[in-house]
Specification:
Elements (H helix, E strand, L loop, with lengths): L16 H4 L3 H4 L1 H20 L11 H12 L3 H14 L2 H12 L6 H4 L8 H38 L4 E6 L2 E7 H21 L14 H5 L1
Helix pairs in contact: 3-4, 3-6, 3-8, 5-6, 8-9
């Protein structure tokens, strides 16, 4: 069955696809794989700054090559990860093998086993998902909501002197102004936006058993 607005399981990818399509860059399976690749690589780069065994990887060109893997990540790359997963039967392990495959031409094999070194899959998942949420909020949701707030402020100013009937308990009450009522809504949106921005987006890194055992030994 071909995916369409009628065959999609969720209205987000069906009826409302044209409104929510830009969120696919953050919450689709392709996006999850890309974020996993990004976290694995940034972890590997950071590891190289602390472990003497990886000191040779501190070269700027090596780091640039590593980051290029996720910066230029394509749907074809995601399909390759899925192909590997069909063999490993493990989604995060497939990402690890994909990175090893992509670095074969510029990283010595002795470094490959330090990719995902000392981690559990949930270290990657519990960092990738919060990072995708953070990016989606900053790059899509916040700008969209701020655009709505800006438009409402403009309307409030234009409608400042337009009278309207107010009600209390469902009955007509003292009149008010349309612009003022719109500004009440603007104020509420701004307060909610500020509260949302104040919520910390936490991730989790703890090693295979939460004690950083392998890191300590290394």
């Amino acid at each position: 069955m071909v995916l369409s607005t009628l065959t999609a399981i969720s209205p987000v990818d069906g009826r409302y696809r044209n409104k929510a399509e830009n969120l696919a860059a953050y919450f689709s399976e392709y996006a999850l794989i890309k974020y996993r690749v990004r976290v694995e690589i940034e972890y590997f780069i950071t590891l190289s700054e602390f472990l003497p065994q990886l000191s040779e990887l501190n070269a700027a060109e090596v780091k640039k090559g590593l980051r290029k893997i996720y910066q230029e990540f394509t749907e074809k790359d995601a399909l390759r990860v899925k192909e590997i997963e069909s063999v490993t039967n493990h989604d995060v392990k497939a990402v690890e093998y994909f990175i090893k495959e992509k670095t074969n031409h510029f990283l010595a094999e002795k470094y490959h086993e330090f990719i995902h070194f000392g981690l559990t899959s949930q270290d990657i998942n519990n960092t990738s998902v919060p990072l995708s949420i953070k990016d989606a909020l900053q790059e899509v949701y916040y700008p969209g909501l701020e655009e709505v707030i800006g438009a409402l402020k403009k309307y409030a100013e234009e409608w400042m002197d337009i009278p309207m009937l107010a009600k209390t308990h469902g009955q007509p009450a003292s009149p008010t102004r349309l612009g003022k009522e719109v500004m009440v809504f603007v104020y509420r949106l701004e307060q909610q936006l500020a509260l949302l921005k104040a919520v910390p987006i936490s991730a989790k890194f703890g090693g295979a058993t939460g004690n950083f055992n392998a890191h300590h030994v290394a």
